[in-house]
Structures are given as C-alpha cells and as structure tokens.
Amino acid sequence: MNQRGFTLTEVAIVGAIIAILTAVAVPDFQEWTAKARLKEDATEMKSHLQFARMLAIQRNTPVTVSFDKATETYDIFIDNGAGVGGVASDFIRNGEEPQLVIASPPQRLNRGVSFHRVNSPTVGTAQGILFNGRGMRRVPLVAPNIVLTAEGIADRYQITVTFVGDVRISEPTGINATAIL
C-alpha cells in the first residue's frame, strides 16, 4: 500500500525543532529590535540637533532644542522671545515663538527608548540646547550631552554638542568615549 503523508511522529519531531529554533531566535530578535530603535533615535536626534544649528545660522536667530524627560520628548523652536509673554533664550516655547515642524512635534522617542541622562543647561525646569545665530551653542563651557538607553539591553548612545555646535554620537564606555557615528 502506497500512502502519502506524514506520520504523527514525523510531525511531532518537526514541531519540536520549530519550537526550539523559535525559543532561541526570539530573544535575539527582541534584542536586535531594541538596539535598532536606540540607534535610530540617536541618529535622528543628531540630525535634528544639526538641523536646529543650521536653521539658527540661516535665520541668524536663537534656536532651542528642549528636552522633557518625563514624557520622553524633545521640541525644536525659534527661541527669540516673539510675541506677548515671549522670553528669548529661556529654553521654553512661550509667547509666539514658532515651533519648527520636522515630523509631528514634539519629537517622541521610540517605544522602549528613554533619556538616561540629559546634562544640559537648565532654566527653571526647562532643559535644552540653544544655538545662537552663528551656530554656536550657548555657554556653559561643559559640553551638554544626552544619553539614550533602551529597555532590556546595556547599550547606550551619548549625543554631545561641542561649543562650536558640532554634534557627535558616541558610546559612553568610560572616560574616553569613542565616536561611532
């Protein structure tokens, strides 16, 4: 008798092999996804900081990138004090200071990615990086930096803005961080 098909034993063995491969692959895929989200947010934040700097130079006006750790968002706006109640260079969008639309402001970090540390100038409760009309960041002398992390992985990216306005991404691995992007 010539029957076609698989025996129950063959199907069970194939099912067991698929289950083992899935159990091995899923954690690696989740880690890979978290790393990809983290790197995407770091490179996007770098490009947004560079955009803010270029716009400050182009319009010869102060442009601020402000950070909100509580909501994991950041906002980009012309911080020139325009309108009633507007205060220039205070890291807070007030008065009629125009918000710069890149995607859908404020910019939100990817799911699972968070601000580990935002070390930037503070005015009241507002933290941010302000570029003047020459594209240089506002003092202090210590370079502001933002460290992004993601859930479930140890990787971190540090975004630093130098005094002259250059934006760098590095992996903080101690005192001497190495540039990676």
Structure description:
With 181 residues, this protein is α+β, with helices and mostly antiparallel strands. The protein has one helix at 8-59, and strands at residues 63-68, 73-78, 107-108, 113-119, 122-123, 126-131, 145-150, 156-161, 167-171, 178-179. The chain has a single domain, classed as minor pseudopilin epsh domain (minor pseudopilin epsh fold). Helix content is 29%, strand content 27%. The strands form 2 sheets. A 5-stranded antiparallel β-sheet has the order 3-2-1-6-5, covered by helices on one side. The model is unreliable at 174-181 (pLDDT under 50).
Short descriptors:
181 residues, elongated, 5-stranded antiparallel beta sheet, 27% strand, minor pseudopilin epsh fold, alpha+beta, 29% helix, 1 helix
